[in-house]
Design goal:
Helix content is 2%, strand content 61%. By secondary structure, the protein is mainly beta.
Length: 878
Amino acid sequence: MKYRCTSIKASQLLWMPLFILFFPYMLLSQNPQGGRPNGGQQMNIGRFYGRVIDDATGKGLGYATVQLTGMVFDTATKKMEQRLIAGQLTEDNGDFSLENLPIRGEFNLKVSYMGYATVEKKVTFGITGRPNGGGGGMEGMAGKLDKDLGNIRLSFSDQVLREVTVQGEAGGFQLALDKKIYRVDQNAIAAGGTAEDALKNVPSLAVDIDGNVTLRNSAPQIFVDGRPTTLTMDQIPADAIDNVEVITNPSAKYDASGGGAGIVNIVLKKNRRIGYNGSVRAGVDMRGRVNLGGDINAREGKLNAFLGGNLNMRRNLGTGETDRINLFGTPRTNVLQSSDNQNDGFFTGGRAGLDWFISNRNTLTVSANYNRGQHESEDEISIHTDTVYENYLRASDATRLSASKRQWQNLGGQIAFKHLFPKEGKEWTADMNFNGSRSEGDGNFNTQYATYDTRQRQENEGQNYYYTAQTDFTSPLNSSMKIEAGGRAAIRQYTSNNANFNFDNTTGDFIRIPGYADNYEYLDQVYAAYSTFSHSYPTWGYQLGLRAETSFYTGDLPNEDTSFVNNYPLSLFPSVFLTYKLNDEDNLQLSFTRRINRPNFFQLIPFPDFSDSLIVSFGNPALRPEFTNSLELQYQNIFAKGHNMLLSTYYKYATDLITRYQYTEYNPVIGREAVVSTFRNANSSTAYGVELTVKNTVWKKLELTTNINVYNSIVNATNVESELKTEQFSWFVKENVNLKLPQNFTVQVSGEYQSRTAYAFDSGGGGGGRGGGGGRGGFYGGSSSTAQGYSLPYWFVDLSVRKDLWKRTASITLSMQDIFRSRRTGAHTESDEFIQDTWRRRDPQLVRLNFSYRFGKFDVSLFKRKNTNTSNEGAEGF
């Protein structure tokens, strides 16, 4: 079979910017340095930079002398003495950069040039003690230690410049009013696993047995490094993730897609430390499946290079059961289906990139990634059928064997540009991104009855390409007002070629069954622009934003010469944020946003999937986007060091809700009437609830993170089926416990309970769908609401023990997931045509052993020695 792809005309890409935006620096270096009288260690990770210019002409002054002095403890005299800490001559354009600076104390910056008056000013990082705890530590404070001193003007007259102060991040809090940031790079439970394992431990998020992510019972938009991806959650190694950002009510600055569920941004590991640093990882699970990984980062002068790779092998074992009472057909039937599943596979990939620090204020980043993998799934399903006649019942048994295989590969690239203006807080960024994947798979299904067999086969292949371009501009108008503006373009192309076959016992060959949906193509284009205005007062502030998006969607069925068109020439998405500071510890924020949820390709593809013997599934290319209005009130309280709380109340109303819907119809592929599962646009949905997130640190040894979400949801689908309306009250609890023990041991426990919800699970008994291994993650299927049933409650507990070795440069971790074998997910579905209960379990009590080693040398001169006029020397290790 050959791939087909809808092409994009060159004229459609001319609007893309020529440069690219990426993210702010991640300065995570930790350079131990002795010399403090109290025996502590000074952290030499600060950086001052700027430009020296002529006050009259505004041009940069090259070869001006820049010196930084401060108090240093003299080990000979046992006294604090004024010493030169760093110094250099400015470059031709006047730029200077003083690096590897101590972060504590007050310093004197002196700038001189022949014929000009010397300028001196006090500078400080504002750090008087060790970084606060609470999970942030130095990592949370790193962004504050890279200070732009702006343009330093030299003239023939004396000029006194005001003091420049860098404020440390109070407490390193990871809970904020606009978003929540969770560190997962130190999560021992997820070590050796995938993004599914990492996200399971993030408060507010739930991950089902298929890797679908939900936030407050809705599917959020998932980004990787702030941009869309075609990777699924089981294709991203947990060891490559640095942190996860959860934004429950994004402003107009963010992409409006994702409906009312918000945004989950997975931030991968990367840093720009002076010198070189990296890590290597290896692990194995109880089934003999290994995982390997490593990354390295090297920075010298104006260049920073990073490289990483990974290999993950998996064997998933699952069981399930489906009990259905069919209310259609004559005679009626009751079916009990039990399944055992084994899925073997691997995925491997690599990331590489280069940062070019063109000057102190201009950075260009180029990066690329490549991933590929394969999954093979085998199912054995036992089917017991009771046929109910008027006066008697007849029992029959059958066995269904299925074998599926899927291969995929993914290629992505980014080019990003960032410019910092001399004015603090003013910056411009731009980026272009490409992410493409292609996959192919097949599935064979053999059902063995008492007197005969039936055999079917499916083949599928597809291509998916995602292009995005974005630019953002931020400018403070004064100390209390700021404007932000930007534009974004996103183009998504998808091509799918599929085929169904029945086995002909006469010829001994598979005969293709032509279908109207065998080939499907679509092109989705979204163009957006936004602007926000922020104004802060001593005790309160506000932000007003407006995003405008125009979208064009065209789906084609080439075999039928049929097209589906959904165009929205102009959609407006306003946002309003009001913040009030009650005191230094208490804050309130009220926010309103409007967002859109566009159907994903799994929900659109009309090709039937009969990997489940009881349900035929396919998408609906005529789906319309759903629009959601969200109102949220948040209260944050910072009790004390290591203790904080975030309380949220929210209300969401959506129109044209994309909901799963099941009905019966005759299917020519299987030659009988069958239950069909597809998607429809329901009239509306309403959800409201209260969420509480509390983080406590006790005795500096015990860290507790508690998340509770109580909500009510209503789905109105009376336009799909008369009187089809459901209401469900639900609650969700997640607890993460981190206990530090003597001898560098750490114990982590993560538990979760989810009550009954109005959330639809796919039926059990299939082989993973889409040729096995497909349908995973929010992008490939995701969760969907339903008005025909509810999910069953479930709970689970994961456990890990970690031992840090060799001055914390290495660690060994032993973990077990679902230690009580209690994570059994399922659903109850009820309609006029059938009543069904289904449950599934996957990989209970799976044990992993992992080892990691971190290395590095933080040295201004990595590849060669040169006189830096500074007393700072490189330090080995972390």
